[in-house]
Structures are given as structure tokens and as C-alpha cells.
């Protein structure tokens, strides 16, 4: 099962594949450890020797700027040696399977894989088939999970709101295709928020979405009432061509976050977005760059969170 | 051919409403009598069947044996051996072989390969359309004359309803049975999991029940329009059972089956991303499973099939959506049927009928019964014997079964095909 796969026999983090199966204590431990790294980035010497001598391979089968850069920086700040590889999904067109790619890299004595892949379950698959000493960190797999993104979002929320207990969080947009949303929902439920509300047209919601432990609204104006945290999701252009939505402009009209609509939420509500932003599609520039936006804070926090998770996953080996 | 005497077994033959302890007498490859010893009977072999059940050999309506272009997955030799060890004496082979069964040459090759493997009763199912492309009709009559027992487009879509209508009209003209797995290509949208809590949680491309029920409803309408006999295969959900029930009540000439694993496994049984559970149609909900069981118990579903799809290791080695769907399932048919009986979903007689009498009726073949004069296809099994699904016991080259490592109850001890012993677990 997922939870057994990512924890060792003592319940310590071995891989980081999904939020599912991780308890509140462990999530809090990650947040606390990230807290200890947060000041570091502003110091003159931005490095700790926690992972000195370790080799980390960033394996990106799918494009990414932010996630890849922050993982690379996080690894370097932990003093690890980092190899970043962009492998177009078409590398399989050369006939090499995912497993062969992994086994070849494994033969180069690496200690950790950070993996992004366009297929749900890819990180689990790799974790199941790598040597026991190697840790696998999921940097996003298909529509399944993006747990480090969810954790940096939790970190950002805690930084500002301090406590999760009474929060009402809205997640707005393409939930169906969003690994970020799935991981956020699991993390928020584990940390015990008061309510998670997903707001989207039916075409962008998975069937039985309520089984994830959320309430559902198809109307942004109604859905934003009493909300403390507004999370916007990126809308991919291909959603129009696959007949999920009529047009960007109609989407913006119904679900785009404007200053006016944001006023419906609580006055101290914060606005988050995992990036990259589509200005004028899901979010108005005035909101994205406005005082309630914490979007760039999320990016900065990404480094600390990823440092914490990598350090913890290596700790299990007693090597860190 | 030798005379064989099977004695002291509990004979269950649903077609002849027999359930009693006694003997089966076989000569020249045929059943010659049950219970009463024929005059001058001198058996060359006596099979002791004490504490065993003796029933008609099983008939499987949907099998893949691979071989030809897929011989790295499995061979006729390995899979017919697996079938024999599972008490299955007749196999219907889906046309999605490589090459496709759309010419008489391939149909003949299939029969020849089966004979060479020492297993006579493999019926090829002819492709409904050329190359299964869903566009042009196959030469159905020639294929029928070459030994094909029905027509099917396997899991491939037929381009549009007009082509399906014409294919059904043509099949009906030659009194051919259409075997149809209802699946709307667009609604299933390259999905790999049931559209439910599981696919939502794990972000897997999902297949709604409507992908099956809409295709089923369309084909039912065309069955009425064209008069084509249709057998619906591998149904997976509640609403399909309801639709078949209504169609039968209405008087349509249709029959249906489900793959036996669908009556045991649901989406809740899937270990996250474990590709061994990747199967089409996907494992559905608990309610769907209950309805399939209910449908079988009430005769709405006529039979069970294995939907056997052996794979090599590589086919299942990857992230869930990228792996090949299918379960290697011939050898678990009997224990899974007995499990339905043990769980009181069906009676033993119903279970045996769903694997013998009923598929024989669907195919219109003189088989699936211990009627004197019929080919001596007999399955003898020990209903109480436990065995573990492991490499010592497993015959199929495909080890892709969710039941791997589990201990199952019910083991075939002896299988006869046309009076010839094709499997024997111990000295008989």
C-alpha cells in the first residue's frame, strides 16, 4: 500500500510519493523542519552540510521551471551533488523503458531520485523498483499527486494563518486534471481544516469528488463566502479543445478571480496559486500582484520545504 | 479408441438434471451411458472419482492464447495446457490475434496450432470487420465455413452504427452469432479505471459505466432491428444487468456473460497503482459486483467466462495507465466459481451450468452435457482441495493474476476431451 511503501519500519519517511497515509505528526514535522531552513536562504552562506557526499538525480520526464529549479537549489543548499535531467517522454520512443532508465541511473550509485512524470503512478512504480537504499521524491505524477507542492502550500498557510483548525479553504479551477489539488486536499484534511470547498464547473471536477472529503460548488460568488484561503489552479489551454470549456473568456467570467470577487471572501483571505499563472484566464493581474497574494512567497517556501523533505527522506538511512 | 469408466463420482450434469453418485461410461470418444453399465463394456482405464465431482468439461466463451505474433506472452501449448488443467475442454478464441482472424487462412492456422498443441477444441471467433478496423465487413460466411463459431470485433470499436447495423444484418443472414463487448470508444476515453472513488483519489483516467451501458443499449436496438443473435460478453456493471434483464423480458434473442473476476474483485481491492489489477472493463464498485452476482443467480447472465489474457512480465511493468490490461484467468475459473457457491451467491448446479450447459446453448454446439452420444468432455474435480497459486501449480505463461500467492479451494484432478485424458493431477 502507498503508506507502507513510503515509510520504513519505524514509521520514518523513506520515499515521499503522496500525502496519503502520512499522519498529522509527520506533516507537522516536515513543516517544522522547513521552518528551520527558512532563514538560511537569506544568510551569506546558503549551505548546510546535511547531504554532503550524496548524489541526487532530478529526473524530469515533463517540463517544469519552478519545481525543478527549487529542487535543484534545495539539494545544493543541503550540499548534495545534483544531476538534473530533462527526459522528454519520447525518450521511450528510443525504446528504453522507464524502468531501464531508472536502472541505468541506479547503476551510477545515486542516492535519491526526484521524479516528475506525466503518468499517474509513475513515482510509485519507480519507488517499487529501485534499490532499497534509494529514496524517491515525487515531483508530480500525472493527475495523481504533487505532494511537495502541497506541503509548501501548507507551510505558506501556516506562516500566515498560524493554525489550520478553523480555516475554510477554497480550491478553484481544474480539479479534474490537478495533482496539486489532490495532494492539497489530502494535506488539508490531515491537518484538520474546517472546510475544503472545490469550485469548478462539472467538466473540471472528477466524478465522486466529494469522496475526497470536500464540499462542492459550481458558483464562484457563492463559493467564496467565509473563505480564508483561496487557491487558484492553472487552466491548461487544451481544456478548450477537448470540449471541457467553451472559451477562456467565459471561464474567466465565471471562475476567474478578480478584485471584486475576492471581496466576497474574508477580508484577510490570502490568494495562492501553484504557478505558472495564466493572467486574465483564471486570475486577474491585480489580484495576482495584489496585497492578498502570497504566490511568490509560495515559491520561496518551496526551497525550504524541499530541503526538509529531502533531508528527512535521507535521515532514514542514518546517513544524513 | 479405448473405453473409460469413471466411477463413484458425484455426477452433476445440469443439462440432464442429474445430481447423483455413479459412473460415466465412455467409448470411442463419446459418452455412452451414465450409471447403467453398457453390455460388454471392457474399460481400458478406470478413473476413481470417489469424493470428486464429475461434470461436463467447461466451455470458455472468451480466451486469448497469444502465440503467432504474441508468442513471447504465451503459446497455444502453454495456454491449452492451462485450460486442460482447469477442466476447460472448449475455448473460444477472440479474433484480436496477430494477425487478426479475418481470413480463412488464419482461422485454419488457429485450429492447426491447437491440434498441434494436443488440444482439439479451440473455436476461432471471426473478426466482424477486416483487420478489426471497424470499417469493412469481414468474409463472415467463409470464416464460418473455416470453423469460426461466431463473429466479434473483440475490444476494437466499430466506426459507426451504420457499419454495425450492416455487419449485424450480414451476420444474421448467415445465422452467425455476434459476440459483443459493449464499450463506447469515446466515452471510455482511453481510461484505465472505473469512474469512482478510486480513480478520483489516484488521478487515473476513468471509464464511466455509461461507456458500457450506452453501447449495450445501442446494440440491443440493432439486435431488434436486424434480428441478429447477440451474446454480450464481459459485462461489468449494474445497469448492464438491468438492461439485459429488460431485453430478455421483452423477448429479444440475446444472452450475456461476465468475466468471473468481476464477481469477486472491485475497485476497493486494487492496491494503489498495482498494474496486476489493470483490466478492461475495469473492476467496478461493490454494487456492480453484487448485481453481477444477482444477475447470474437469476439467469439474467447466462454464463461466466475467463476473459483470459496472459501477459509477459514487461507488459505489466510500468506506471498503471501505461501497462497492458488483462488477467491470466483460466486456472482460477473453477475455484472462483466454487467461491461463489461457498458465499451462497449461486448454487453449485448453477455454477456448473454457467460454465457448460449455458455456453453450449449460446454457441449451439452439442457439448456442455454428459448426454449419451455427446463428445466425452468431462471435468473431474475435488471441491475441497486447497492449492496455492504459485509457479509450481501454474501452467499459463502469464502470471498476471491478482490471486497470485493466494490459496484457493477446488482443484481439477482429471480432464477428458473427446474421451482423451488431457490432464491428470495424479494417478487415475
Keywords:
heterodimer, A: 320 residues, alpha/beta, Rossmann fold, 2 domains, five-stranded parallel sheet, four-stranded parallel sheet, 9 strands, 14% strand, B: alpha/beta, TIM Barrel, eight-stranded mixed sheet, eight-stranded parallel sheet, 12 helices, 18 strands, 23% strand
Task: Give a description of the structure.
The complex is a heterodimer of chains A (320) and B (428). With 320 residues, chain A is of the alpha/beta class. Chain A contains 13 helices and 9 strands. Chain A has 2 domains: 2-144 and 300-315, 3-Layer(aba) Sandwich (Rossmann fold); 147-298, Aspartate/ornithine carbamoyltransferase (Rossmann fold), CATH 3.40.50.1370. In chain A, helix 2 (24-38) crosses helix 13 and helix 6 (147-161) packs across helix 13 (295-315). Chain A is globular. In chain B, strands 1, 2, 3, 4, 5, 16, 17 and 18 form an 8-stranded mixed sheet that branches. The longest helix of chain B has 18 residues, at 209-226. Chain B is of the alpha/beta class and 428 residues long. Chain B has a single domain, classed as Metal-dependent hydrolases (TIM Barrel, Alpha-Beta Barrel). The A-B interface holds A 1-2, 20, 97-99, 117, 119-122, 124-125, 129, 141-145, 179, 182, 206-209, 211-212 and B 195-197, 199-206, 208, 271-273, 314, 317-322.
Q: Return the string of H and E elements of chain A.
A: HHEHEHEHEHEHEEHEHHHEHH
Helix-strand category of chain B: alpha/beta
Strand order in the largest sheet of chain A:
7-6-5-8-9
Distance between the termini of chain A: 26 Å
Outline of chain A: globular
Average pLDDT metric of chain B: 96
Strand content of chain B: 15-25%
Low-confidence segments of chain A = none
Radius of gyration of chain B: 21 Å
Amino acid at each position: 500500500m502507498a503508506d507502507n511503501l513510503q515509510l520504513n519500519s519505524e514509521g520514518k519517511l523513506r520515499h515521499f510519493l503522496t500525502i496519503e497515509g502520512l499522519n498529522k505528526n509527520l506533516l507537522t514535522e516536515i513543516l517544522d523542519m522547513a521552518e528551520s531552513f527558512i532563514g538560511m536562504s537569506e544568510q551569506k552562506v546558503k549551505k548546510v552540510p546535511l547531504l554532503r557526499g550524496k548524489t541526487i538525480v532530478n529526473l524530469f520526464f515533463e517540463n517544469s521551471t519552478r519545481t525543478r529549479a527549487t529542487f535543484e537549489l534545495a539539494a545544493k543548499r543541503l550540499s548534495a551533488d545534483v544531476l538534473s535531467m530533462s527526459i522528454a517522454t519520447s525518450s521511450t520512443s528510443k525504446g528504453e523503458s522507464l524502468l531501464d532508465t531508472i536502472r541505468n541511473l541506479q547503476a551510477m550509485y545515486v542516492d535519491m531520485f526526484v521524479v516528475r512524470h506525466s503518468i499517474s503512478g509513475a513515482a510509485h512504480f519507480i519507488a517499487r523498483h529501485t534499490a532499497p537504499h534509494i529514496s524517491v521524491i515525487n515531483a508530480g505524477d500525472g493527475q495523481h499527486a504533487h505532494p511537495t507542492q502541497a506541503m509548501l502550500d501548507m507551510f505558506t498557510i501556516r506562516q500566515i494563518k498560524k493554525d489550520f483548525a478553523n480555516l475554510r479553504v477554497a480550491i478553484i479551477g481544474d480539479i479534474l486534471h490537478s495533482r496539486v489539488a489532490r495532494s492539497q486536499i489530502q494535506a488539508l484534511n490531515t491537518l484538520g481544516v474546517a472546510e475544503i470547498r472545490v469550485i469548478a464547473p462539472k467538466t473540471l471536477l472528477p466524478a465522486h469528488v466529494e469522496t475526497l472529503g470536500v464540499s462542492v460548488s459550481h458558483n464562484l460568488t457563492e463559493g467564496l463566502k467565509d473563505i480564508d484561503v483561496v487557491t487558484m489552479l492553472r487552466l491548461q489551454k487544451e481544456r478548450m479543445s477537448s470540449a471541457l470549456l467553451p472559451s477562456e473568456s467565459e471561464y474567466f467570467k465565471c471562475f476567474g478571480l478578480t478584485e471584486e470577487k475576492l471581496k466576497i471572501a474574508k477580508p484577510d483571505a490570502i490568494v495562492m496559486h501553484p504557478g505558472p499563472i495564466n493572467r486574465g484566464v483564471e486570475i486577474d493581474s491585480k489580484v495576482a500582484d495584489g496585497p492578498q497574494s502570497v504566490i511568490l512567497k509560495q515559491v520561496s517556501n518551496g526551497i525550504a520545504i524541499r530541503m526538509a523533505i529531502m533531508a528527512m527522506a535521507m535521515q532514514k538511512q542514518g546517513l544524513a | 479408441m479405448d473405453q473409460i469408466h469413471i466411477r463413484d463420482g458425484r455426477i452433476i450434469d445440469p443439462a440432464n438434471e442429474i445430481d447423483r453418485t455413479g459412473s460415466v461410461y465412455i467409448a470411442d470418444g463419446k459418452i455412452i451411458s451414465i450409471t447403467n453399465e453398457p453390455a460388454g463394456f471392457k474399460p481400458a482405464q478406470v478413473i476413481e472419482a470417489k469424493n470428486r465431482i464429475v461434470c461436463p468439461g467447461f466451455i470458455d466463451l472468451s480466451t486469448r492464447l497469444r502465440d503467432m505474433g504474441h508468442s513471447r506472452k504465451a503459446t497455444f501449448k502453454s495456454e491449452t495446457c492451462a485450460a486442460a488443467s482447469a477442466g476447460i475442454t472448449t475455448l473460444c478464441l477472440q479474433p484480436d490475434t496477430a494477425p487478426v482472424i479475418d481470413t480463412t487462412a488464419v482461422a485454419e492456422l488457429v485450429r492447426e496450432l491447437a491440434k498441434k498443441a494436443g488440444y482439439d477444441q479451440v473455436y476461432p471467433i471471426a473478426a466482424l470487420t477486416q483487420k478489426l478496423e471497424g470499417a469493412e465487413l469481414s468474409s463472415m460466411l467463409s470464416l464460418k465455413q473455416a470453423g469460426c463459431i461466431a463473429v466479434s470485433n473483440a475490444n476494437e470499436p466499430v466506426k459507426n452504427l451504420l457499419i454495425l447495423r450492416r455487419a449485424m444484418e450480414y451476420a444474421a443472414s448467415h445465422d452467425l452469432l455476434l459476440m459483443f463487448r459493449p464499450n463506447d470508444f469515446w466515452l471510455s476515453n482511453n481510461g484505465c479505471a472505473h469512474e469512482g472513488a478510486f480513480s478520483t483519489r489516484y488521478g487515473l483516467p476513468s471509464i464511466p459505466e455509461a461507456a458500457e451501458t450506452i453501447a449495450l443499449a445501442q446494440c440491443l436496438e440493432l439486435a431488434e432491428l436486424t434480428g441478429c443473435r447477440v451474446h454480450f460478453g464481459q459485462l461489468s456493471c449494474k445497469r448492464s444487468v438491468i438492461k439485459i434483464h429488460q431485453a430478455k423480458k421483452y423477448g429479444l434473442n440475446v444472452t450475456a456473460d461476465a468475466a468471473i473476476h468481476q464477481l469477486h474483485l472491485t475497485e476497493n481491492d486494487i492496491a494503489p497503482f498495482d498494474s496486476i489489477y489493470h483490466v478492461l472493463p475495469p473492476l467496478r464498485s461493490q454494487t456492480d459486483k453484487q448485481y453481477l452476482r444477482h444477475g447470474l443467480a437469476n439467469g439474467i447472465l447466462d454464463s461466466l467466462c475467463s476473459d483470459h489474457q496472459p501477459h509477459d512480465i514487461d507488459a505489466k511493468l510500468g506506471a498503471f495507465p501505461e501497462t497492458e490490461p488483462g488477467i491470466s484467468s483460466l486456472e482460477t475459473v473453477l475455484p472462483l466459481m466454487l467461491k461463489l457457491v461457498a458465499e451462497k451467491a449461486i448454487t453449485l448446479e448453477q455454477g456448473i451450468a454457467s460454465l457448460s450447459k449455458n455456453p453450449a446453448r449460446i454457441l449451439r454446439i452439442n457439448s456442455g452435457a454428459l448426454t449419451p452420444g455427446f463428445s466425452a468432455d468431462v471435468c473431474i474435480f475435488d471441491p475441497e482441495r486447497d492449492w496455492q497459486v504459485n509457479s509450481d501449480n501454474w501452467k499459463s505463461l502469464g502470471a498476471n493474476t491478482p490471486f497470485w500467492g493466494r490459496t484457493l479451494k477446488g482443484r481439477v484432478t482429471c480432464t477428458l476431451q473427446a474421451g482423451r485424458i488431457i490432464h491428470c493431477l495424479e494417478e487415475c
